[in-house]
Amino acid sequence: MKWIALPLMVLGAALPWSSYAEQNEVNLYSARKAELIEPLLEKFTAESGIKVNLVTGKDDALLQRLKSEGELSPADMLITADAARLQRAKDAGLFQSIDSEVLNQRIPAHLRDSTNQWFGLSQRARVIFYDPAKVKPEQLSTYEALADDQWQGRVCIRSSSNVYNQSLVAAMIDDLGAERTQTWANNFMDSFARPPAGGDTDQIRALGAGQCDVAVANTYYYGRMLKSDGKDKAIAESVALFWPNQDGRGTHVNVSGAGVTQSAKNKAEAIKLLEFLVSERAQQWYAEVNNEFPVVQGVALDPVVAAWGEFKADDVPLNTLGENNQQAVKIMDRAGWR
Amino acid sequence: MTGTHRPSNRRSKHKDFSVALVTTVVALVLAIPVLSVLWHAVFTDSSSWQHLADTVLSDYVWQSFWLCVWVASGVLVLGISCAWLTSRFEFPGSRVFSWALLLPLAFPAYIIAYAYTDLLDFAGPVQTSLRELTGWGFRDYWFPPIRSLGGAALMLTLVLYPYVFMLSRASFMTQSGLTAEAARSLGASRLRTFWRVDLPLARPAIVAGTSLALMETLADYGTVSYFGVSSFSAGIFRTWHGLGDMNGAMQLAALLLTVVVVLLSIERYSRRRQRVDQLGLAPNHAPPKLQGWRAWLATGWCTLPLLLGFLVPVAMILSWLWQKPPSLDEEFVELIGNSMLLAIAAALITLSLAILLSWLRRFYPRPWIKPAVASAGLGYAVPGTVIAIGILVPLAALDRQLNAWLLELSDWRPGLIFSGTVFALLFAYAVRFMAVALNSVQAGMSQISPSLDRSARSLGHGRWSVMRRIQLPMLTTSLLTAALLVFVDVLKELPATLILRPFNFDTLAVKAHELAADERLLDAGPVALTIVLVGLLPVILLSRNLRHPRSDQ
Question: Which of A21, A186, A308, B241 is the most exposed place for a label (fewest CB within 10 A)?
Fold first, then answer.
């Protein structure tokens, strides 16, 4: 039996058996990928001496984990990559209200929860890209107009299982109402150039290769392609960005954000981390590395991002996106958007 | 009870009973996640069931159905033909094929899907050069779309056919050797022998391999979601994440589970009267050499799955590394360490439990034991996420109870000792991959004639002694196969690992997924390749073993 005992002993020594944290730490559940959050956390640790323990995962799985663990949960803070999940966590009673002068001052009201249970940390815009050889920018106007006859078979967009599309439709429901959004979705199906699949980058690539004339994608993928040094750079340079809905509610914007959990045992440290994440340097770093837009006013944009110009962002309170999410999925289901 | 010459006394009967009880409890514990899914499905209300039934449910059902039909056809054709060719004939490369055809097993399906998409998508190199050569544009030509139901079926077939290949090859090499030779000597042609003798005799092995492949297909999420296929498991995710309706998701999972149970029962029932006992080992002389075009046809045919399932995706990943050279750092070494430790521990635990369960099923045939053991293997058909939730919910509840109780007794709260540690992960792996281990161990045991047990027993050996001295040594190949399969599967496992792992603890699969999900394929390349490399080791061991089956006896 020795051959069983040895690896088990090694395992016992090597793995973290206890889930309980020591002092001066923050335990973080993050739906943001480690690559995007770890460098910032390291900076925070270097500055404050507070260690950050991290588990990454899918938003809803982390929510479920928090829910199941209840007050025993070791997590002090939850970061998600969209507003709908922040709202879902709030509705499930997983967050607590945080009273922080710094957070209230730096984050605009529509980018945080009305009872201060969650806070936006970075903004991501969902826009229309087009092939300048085939489409003139004058032909473009709104997301809604992409359902018009002239776009039949010309649009690339990913599957409706993706939360970016769900939030986009959720925002539309807020503006147009469910019925008109349903009509729009039904018509929009005719605009697809191909069955929806792949990620946002894939939509831009398909646009560059000529499979469609217009694509819907988030800006930071485009920014990353522009900064890359391969074939993606050439593709990104051959397409152009259009800010939709500028005469109406504005371009659809979602946030990544965070809240302090109900079970937090290191509440003070967690608040410190939140405040750090909206500090000038952290916001700048976010904007630079992931080509997103800062939530804090006056923070310098990354030059590549700044080159896309100013735009008007939809300032619908973000908890609406969460509230409308289910309805959005149902509308897309009925329309046959898979 | 099987006949025994030893007078049974009350004490040994008592002992029998407690062994049976303990093992039944083990089986039930392993069934907890599945039962917890069923419980959820039956006793909670879904807010969106009507909506699902009206809109997408039929899509989920049909897409999964066709996915299974295509994957089943694929793995049967590739697996059986290659196994038959390599075990019955000699042709250029046949020795290499006998192990190399297992290599695709090291590939997670989602990674092969990334590689092929990069290659064959509209914007990929193949179609781009095609357009450059011909001057065609979009809609001027038809090219099989990789992101489709057919594409997903192809990806899954390429990585899952080794199950059928491995199990049917072992069967061709051992069981039917003598029988096939008898048929040949009576004047049957090779093809006729194949249809009338080889195939029916290998049926249990083929069915076992195919059912593993299909269960894996039904549980797959990575590939189908990447390709935009609305299969059942994609529907479970969508219901949970998109509609925020976990109860609805659990009801879908329960429906899926019911279908699997019904199909498995039909299959078992259909061969209830079949019994395959081994006649003896295959005659020990060289297989016939194929000549001329037949030889080349055999070589070409066996190259196909190897090329598509291994060489092409490896070449694609290498081309990513070429575009963006990897940097090996400490973190990377830690990832490899974590992955291997988990895989080794899970393999040992799962194998031990599988031996216990199969042994019990064979020697204590009580009415409730067969279904109990069978239910322990159901986890393989359930998407890893659903298993993870099925584990998380009851384990966290147990932790909460335990903490409340301990707090009352003393002043001490141990925290989440079950749900917040590797315990939950290892539990999840055991549940998820028990079917793989059970299938292999039971297949091995079924080839040991009961007369052997009876003779040993009649010589005065107890059941434990028979197991230790006769069965375990005879089972070496099957046990090794089981352990290695679980090892490779854990290495590739993603959803449960993602949900249940403790703080600051990542694995290769998690890392590869995070990078790929963030649409950074080039960065995911080195990690993906490492998964394949680490997975290759046991696959090579496995294949060496396959080449000389039962040489240990």
Answer: A186
Alpha carbons B221 and B237: distance in angstroms, whole number: 8
pTM above 0.90, yes or no: no
Q: Count interface pairs A-B at CB distance under 8 A.
A: 198
> Is pLDDT above 60 for A247?
yes
Q: In the CATH scheme, what architecture does the domain B56-115+150-273+293-323 have?
A: Orthogonal Bundle (1.10)
E-state strands within A51-189: 51-56, 77-80, 119-130, 155-156
Q: Closest approach of chain B CAs to the CA of A105, in angstroms?
A: 31
Q: Where are the domains of chain B?
A: 56-115+150-273+293-323, 328-552
Question: What architecture is the B328-552 domain classified under in CATH?
Answer: Orthogonal Bundle (1.10)
Q: Do the chains contact at B230 and A338, CB–CB below 8 Å?
A: yes
- Judge whether residue A20 has pLDDT over 80: no
B4 touches A at CB < 8 Å: no
CA distance A160 to A125: 17
B415 vs A18, A64, A221: nearest CB: A18
Tell me which residues of chain B, numbers 206 to 265, contact chain A at a CB-CB cutoff of 8 Å: 225-228, 230, 234, 237-238, 240-246
CB B229 within 8 A of CB B109: no
Residue B462 burial class via C-beta count within 10 angstroms: exposed 0-12, middle 13-18, buried 19 and up:
middle
Distance CA A289, CA B280 (A): 66
pLDDT of residue B177: 61
Q: Nearest Cβ partner of A64 from B246, B417, B519?
A: B246
Mean pLDDT by 10 residues, chain B (553 residues): 46 69 85 88 87 93 96 97 92 91 90 92 90 87 91 97 90 69 78 82 86 91 89 90 89 90 81 58 68 94 96 94 80 92 95 90 78 86 88 91 88 84 94 91 79 80 79 82 91 90 92 85 88 84 63 37
Domains along chain A with CATH numbers? 25-123+254-299 (3.40.190.10), 125-252+314-335 (3.40.190.10)
Q: How many Cβ atoms sit within 10 Å of the Cβ of residue A233? A: 14
- According to DSSP, the β-strands at A293-294 and A119-130 are antiparallel
Q: Is the pLDDT of residue A17 over 90?
A: no
CA of B548, closest CA in chain A: separation in Å?
A: 24
Which parts of A are annotated binding residues?
220-221
Measured between CA atoms, how close is B388 to chain A, in angstroms?
A: 9
